Amino acid sequence: MPGPLPGRLSAPVSPAAPRRRVAVVGVALSDCGRVEGPTPYALHAQAARRALADSGLDRSVIDGFASAGLGVLAPVEVAEYLGLRPTWVDSTSVGGSTWEVMAAHAADAIAAGHANAVLLVYGSTARADIKARRRTSNLSFGARGPLQFEVPYGHTLVAKYAMAARRHMHEYGTTLEQLASVAVQARANAATNPDAMFRDPITVEDVLASDPIADPFTKLHCCIRSDGGCAVLLAAEDYVPDTAKSPVWVLGTGTAVSHTTMSEWEDFTVSPAGASGRQAFARAGLTPADVDLAEIYDAFTYMTLVTLEDLGFCAKGEGGAFVEKGRLLREGELPVNTDGGGLSACHPGMRGLFLLVEAVRQLRGEAGPGQVTKPGGRLPEVALASGTGGWFCSAGTVILGRG
């Protein structure tokens, strides 16, 4: 065998430490919906305090921190505001999938021993800021770099999703009524969620008759705009005996990116959730058939439909038929967005962290009247959270379990 390498590398190398299991040990929402007064920083702090209290752990255990979307030096500014001095940080910003991607990074870091407990936190006053005219509604992500070739033509964010939806309708015969049924079922799920911003029932006809936004989307095909924040605390298995509640384990994660300019998107009917989902299922040793409920990013109805296809819950092109039969309802075959999702519950911006909070609450049996149960009243055992960023530019998938 070859001899040792010269220099410092000739020193003995200790074997890699065994990877630790990682659990979600604390989750919480800040005040959500119509929140007047508090700043985004205050919502971050409120959610963080509540998540820490939910975990039962002392703040001194937190040595990792992840945040995006606020401040010039995120997450440094937010950590300072919270009085934290982390030794592991993440500021990955890939839109709505940011938090699933961050959760994947945090789980890997904890498993490898680079951090012990990582806090993910988000807060936004998007609705209040527009109402107070502190900001305007964003029609695009900017006009620099590759985006400069699309922005002059008025191709807004919603228009990009709408064009993709039209392509799916053309390729597979997906109907407006099928897309509208996604919004109807999300609203039905929101009805029993006291934190949901909109809870009154709607019909397919209501969705189709609402104000046009970007063909084929009407207003009720699109997410609401709210204020709010949330936080998730992940920790190594070593800390689980000291937590206040039963752990929810991270079973598998996956991340992927696709495109930023529409001309580089090979197929408008395929999202990067296909790649992130395959990774997550393989790493968890599970299949879509093992999933009891799914929390899916739903800025628009089409996102839910195509993500379900790409994650393998139905075949490509069969999403329309899959969603129209009430399968997404809390009592349905595959409960989806059990809190009402971004279409009805809350959507303050990068909503991906809310997906993880709801998934954990469902697995713990803490969803109150909105609780999903299996036959015999048993709690669900496996939940999936799938975040989408940009206009299907990025995806992150996290599979969680009670076992």
From TrEMBL:
Pfam families linked to this entry: Thiolase_C_1
Domain Thiolase C-terminal: 254-402
Domain of life from the UniProt record: Bacteria
Gene3D superfamilies in alphabetical order: 3.40.47.10
Signal peptide from the UniProt entry: none
Name this polypeptide is given: Acetyl-CoA acetyltransferase
Native organism: Streptomyces katrae
